[in-house]
Amino acid sequence: MPRLPDVLKTRPAKIAGFALLGALLIWQAEAFVDRQYKAAVVSVFPADPDASALAALKERYAGDRSDWPKPVVHANAVVKEMEALPLPAKPEGTQLLKVELGRQLFEDPALSASGQIACQSCHNRELGWGDGLRTAFGHGRQKGKRNTPALFNAAWRPELFWDGRAETLAQQAVMPMTDPKEMAVEDLDQVVGRMAGDTVYRNRFRDAFGDEAISLERVTEALAAFQSTLEERTVFDRFLAGNSAALSDEQVWGLHLFRTKAGCMNCHSGPLLTDDKYHNLGLSLLGRPLADTGRYAISQDMEDVGRFRTPSLRHVRETRPYMHNGLIRELPLVVRFYEVGAGKTQPRSEEEAADPLMAHAGKTSELITPFTLTARERQALVSFLEAL
User: Fold this and answer.
1) Which residues bind heme c 2 per the record (predicted)?
2) Is the alpha carbon torsion for 106, 110, 113, 114 positive or negative?
3) What is the predicted pLDDT for the residue at 236?
């Protein structure tokens, strides 16, 4: 905003009333023009901006979020404004002992039937709490159909897994253990009994829970306690907290594209950068070896055929490959995928066309519409995504 003119710093008694009014009007007009210029800069931002345009955009986004350009989204999108994710205090006392016990359980292959697969086999800290594979493999080297979800912010999510079949971390913890393609445990009591026969585990459970009793409920509670500590602060969190230097001018341009031209906020908004809903991206691959009906397998609602839970984009740089089936390995290719309007499931034969699920599988989400980015815009968007 323009500086207050010198005439307004003079004692009112020393200047004429009209002079004061005129100076004030000039100052207000200059301020209005300044605001309008900045608004114009971001409302129709050039596809090939120079340094001054990028600096003006950075200045706008460095200010109060209430003054940010509004996101451009579909009328039916459920959108929350971006904000830093508040992290809980570090665990102490008994809760810390539960976290440490949960970490030990998480790393212990004794939770599997073969004694060779631990939770960390698929959720590796060094690989963004995933496994870096397109789809996971488990018991007997069996391949699954889905990409391993990252665990960073699992404690904040109302539903877990790509199809949302678990509502809590404790509930989720049992499912991989009993899945025949993952840890393949047929009798969970045997797993509990194995720990009960281990002096070290009895002592750890006593320290965490007050006595040596070991139960499935305590096992899953400890695992959930550990998984609740995995989220970390990001570069974008620092920017949202007021450190405008945390993002480069190019990354702020990417932020603007994320909110406007690319339409990313239709599904990715709020502190977790997800709407926690289920959308069809045209990747159910119905009729093919990796066919997956998604949420439908849980809800049995035909409208859910091919719909999968929106992942959080926090730490997205670390969690490749992408999509529920790990189909896309790199972020630039993810951007390209959405530029063309996502995928499309179509029948390849009369038999497939007759499948009652096919008509629903072919309904790509209305929130996804094609758009076109220049090479510079695409790079800016990817650069921003890498800061999330």
Assistant:
1) 264, 267-268
2) positive
3) 98
